[in-house]
Amino acid sequence: MTASTRNGYVPGRLTVHNDPAKLGGVTRALRGTGRKIVLIPTMGALHDGHRELIRHARRIPGAVVPVVSIFVNPLQFGAGEDLERYPRPLKADVDACREEGVELVLVPRAEDMYPPGSDTRVVAGPLGDELEGASRKGHFDGVLTVVSKLFHIVGPDVAMFGEKDYQQLTLVRRMVRDLYFPLDVVGVPTVREDDGLALSSRNAFLDAGQRRRAAVLHRALAAGASMSVRGPDAVLAAARAELAGEPEVDVDYLAVRGVDLGPPPDSGAARLLIAARFGATRLIDNTPITL
Ligand code: PAF
What we know:
Bound molecules: pantoate
Number of helices: 11
Helix content: 25-40%
Strand order of the largest sheet: 1-4-3-2-5-6
Distance between the termini: 58 Å
Oligomer: single chain
Number of strands: 9
Mean pLDDT: 95
Largest sheet: 6 strands, parallel
């Protein structure tokens, strides 16, 4: 029996694990065979944005084992957020993973990720309290805590994250650097609907009118980006003018930041970020700009 079959792993076939320890045993054995383990952490409700992450993972040169984790992480939801109503279409998610050539799926139970008394947390630091963190206290501590657990369980060589959650991507990169996780973090560009709306599992909550109005986020980012040579104030003014055309949009923040989400530079690469509510649904988006 080879290392790749000993733990029930069959190359090219998808296996779903609930037990983190078992999955960790499989990835450990596979690493010994020289294959690259690539983790795509998700909360499920997989859409084309997630499929794009998997496709990027499979395009990494060399022999790659794509691993998808599906876990709606209670620790990153605040009181009154959408933890209960967050979609959990597990069968469709597993089918999507199979279609995309994923070989290992981890669907851990909450009691395995957070056994009684497991009170240790990863703290995001000051950036965790800004932008998304300003209205979602503790959200990024919850994200970084679960992501670090997943990194330890799976032991990936590479982890893929979407650029739509740009602050999350930035904070994960920082955690990997600060805590010496031995892996590369790859950010994958946002996948959009035809009208520019960024794909998100939360888009499913929008009614028809909200869905139509939500395209203003992308239009505002594009309007802002078109003014980037004139500096941050012009970027923000152009984006605000576009948002003013959709009076029912409740904007939470609109900000120009550096690529590391610090203050924007005088010139060069930067990021324009937005968050807004459409009824009870809060959406985020961002775009690269050059000042
Ligand atoms: O982006 C997400 O889906 C989640 O925040 C993540 C990274 C899977 C952690 O729960």
